[in-house]
């Protein structure tokens, strides 16, 4: 049976599916030494191989096949390939990166043979192979040097290449599912699904199931990089996973509230494969198969699970107990997709019709803050981060980061600053808006954020083909997009032009490209008023009217604007500027404006503007 998302969903609607248990635990029971790890194939290899479990796919295939069959015999519907360290990144530690394709192909082929054997014996219960793509020992979001938070020992592009090489071999070997597992850094997972998505598109495998499973590292309920479970889901939702869940680090009892959070948030199948409790002082696990199975049965009874299995410390005995415990319990019902726009930093941000106006902090912008620009030019990234903290403390729910300055290497500056920002939990708590007029700078930013951010901006300025290409990439990176009312003829400066461009963009993105409507954020251009030029007199009113048009005709879309542009004619007169911004926002929000780039700490309350000033402004 060729497994597709549709078939997997149908099987998981009938009963809770069972995943296998730990591969490493079972390998340890064989007591293998250096000679066994080398086998005849690598007897003369120059580096030690003991501990490289993945190499056993080549040097001890009978042992690996035996472990696969042990789990299938215990009742596993899905077995996971022995490829936890199957990337060139991990294999380079053993000087075996050149064997990555062979390792992964052999792992999948051995698993395929075992699964097919059990399917043939009982066609009523088909068995499947999940190709494991694990996190590697390097992370895109954390510096290996505590004294240099902007440093990374691997790049997004390097991870994409490594995961792509592994995924190709797993598919060629016969994997039914690609599982991006044990993820402690969502940015690593983004790189994995970026690579996988590209491969599946090239192969025409549009209904091939992808599984994403993260790791909550402790009772704080966050990944190693600081994300909450819901923020993790939001950050990877763009990969359209057939299964999404949690594994490793925690035992079942400790994992339960976080599985519950994922089960509530995710509109797809949900999995859990915890450890056999917490490790004891000797590194073993004390929870018995029946104890663990009873806890997971309660998960199932609560309607949290579609797929269940085990991770560290579990063996075929555990899987058999889990299989018995969940038999007959109805699987979780997959909920409808939740309405609204969902963004994430370390924590989620929901924007819907009931939300208040979203303030986007404007000061982490070299064009919006002289102090920030000076600090960035001087290379004082950590001091520049304080500007971001002040914005968040002042009420910014998103921070806008812009490095467009002729005195800067903007690509490098964007990448380094976002790396530093990731080290600060106060600022990285909120989503990032990556702001640039240059696509290469935007892409550098997209490769640095672990959450779901916003690209500011794309437009039809460079033609429809380039617009489509960039929109597809924004989607693949997992971001929402601000789209400027700007086309091949220039910026829209009338109501008619604003509406025409927004209508065209909506048709291209939503109708033709399948871009999620809730991730389309229009910017109909806030221009300066009161300039003394008569043609500028209606700019503010036209913007407001366009907001209403978007809300009436483009369900789900958001509207944003750079509010400070409005009062540019009055720069230096903060009292007037603040009153103009507040009055404009009062009317624009009523017409549908959802968010705006503002100095969150310098907004006047509309009702508190002096009456004579308010009259003059309005």
Low confidence ranges: none
| DSSP strand count | 20
What is the average of the pLDDT values?
Answer: 95
> For the report, how would you describe the main beta sheet?
8 strands, parallel
Radius of gyration: 27 Å
State which percent range the strand residues make up: 5-15%
Tally of helical segments: 23
What this model shows, in words?
- It is a single chain.
- The protein is built from 23 helices and 20 strands.
- The protein is an alpha/beta fold and 618 residues long.
- The protein has an eight-stranded parallel beta sheet. An eight-stranded parallel beta sheet has the order 19-18-15-14-13-12-11-20, covered by helices on one side. It has a two-stranded antiparallel ribbon with strand order 9-10.
- Helix 21 (539-553) packs parallel to helix 22 (574-591).
